[in-house]
Amino acid sequence: FTRSKAPGAPIVWCREILATGTARAIIVNSGNANVFTGKVGRAAVVDTAAAVAAALGCAPAEVYISSTGVIGEILPVDRILTAIPGLVDAVSTTGWTTAARAIMTTDTFPKGATRRAVIDGITVTLNGFAKGSGMIAPDMATMLGYV
Predict the structure, then answer these.
(1) DSSP sequence for the chain
(2) Is 31 exposed, middle or buried (0-12, 13-18, 19+ CB in 10 A)?
(3) How far apart are CA 1 and CA 42, in angstroms?
(4) Which residues of 36-63 are buried (b: 16+ CB within 10 A; e: fewer)?
(5) How far is residue 96's CA from residue 92's CA, in Å, rounded to a whole number?
(6) φ, ψ at 99 (rounded to 5°)
(7) What is the pLDDT of residues 17-76, one digit of tens each?
(8) pLDDT tens sequence across 93-121
């Protein structure tokens, strides 16, 4: 999470639900950070979590939300809510590379890795990707990472 004294609505949401200890979904939007958007930004996060939870059959508190992009503009949440059923239908074990490309804002290339491991005798595949470029100093960067 950020050290900013003015975190965006997605950060506040994720901090609040972290104590539940369960994550069933992550939804990420690029192009709009949903920061400095007040009650409207909070409502967008709540509505997004509820829509993803309904589509997946889980609790809204199990849906983590990330946003990256322009600060201070109202998030066009209706576009996200409309897209959720198609996103759920498109989920795949290989979709992480598409997601890595989709979150690039100022990045010049996607950043990701895949590794296999044996855990309790079962081979699992771990995929991770991140976005973040430029402005690392003086502590103004947005770094998002997912495993």
Answers:
(1) ----SS--HHHHHHHHHGGG----EEEEEEEE---S-HHHHHHHHHHHHHHHHHHHTS-GGGEEEEEEEESSS---HHHHHHHHHHHHHH--TTTHHHHHHHT-SS-SS-EEEEEEEEETTEEEEEEEEEE--S-TTTT----EEE-
(2) middle
(3) 17
(4) ebeeebbebbebbbebbbebeebebbbb
(5) 8
(6) -65, -40
(7) 999 989 999 999 988 999 999 999 999 999 999 999 999 999 999 999 999 888 999 999
(8) 888 889 999 888 778 888 899 999 999 99
Closest CA to 109 of 127, 85, 131: 131
CA dist 142 and 31 (Å) reads 13
Residues assigned a catalytic role: 142
Q: How many CB atoms lie within 10 A of CB 79?
A: 10
The reported pTM is 0.88
67, 32 Cβ separation under 8 angstroms: yes
Distance CA 22, CA 5 (A): 26
**Contact call for residues 95 and 120 (beta carbons, < 8 A):** no
